[in-house]
Amino acid sequence: MRMTPELELIMQRRLKRLDGGDGLGFIVRHSELKGKDRLCNVVDCLGKACPWTLGISSKQMINWLRSELDELEKELNLFDKIMIKKETLGKEEEDNDNENAIILEKSSLISEMGDILFDALMLEMIVRRYDAC
User: Phi-psi category of 25—alpha, beta or left, where left has phi over 0 and alpha has psi -120 to 50?
Assistant: First the structure.
């Protein structure tokens, strides 16, 4: 999918665009962005400037994505075991160690889902690169 002039104009209005002065055209400084705008900008910059990213194929990126999905599945299985233990204990027997494990596991799940999102965006960027050919 190619970026239409209308979409480009919307993005320029939405993001503060700055000339990075590095020959890559307009690049938004990551530190000026938050959330999904920052993530998309990081992926965009990697797609233009990172030698590793410029050389990776869609098949290679799918393998990275698959690996992250496997890691998420492992974390979800562990989380399920922790939650089953919590349900078995009941409210009267709250276990602080188990509560700490839940907090840590939620953090791990969020991290893995972030990795998956990043890899999916990287794959999308690679496919877009094929579109530009």
Answer: left
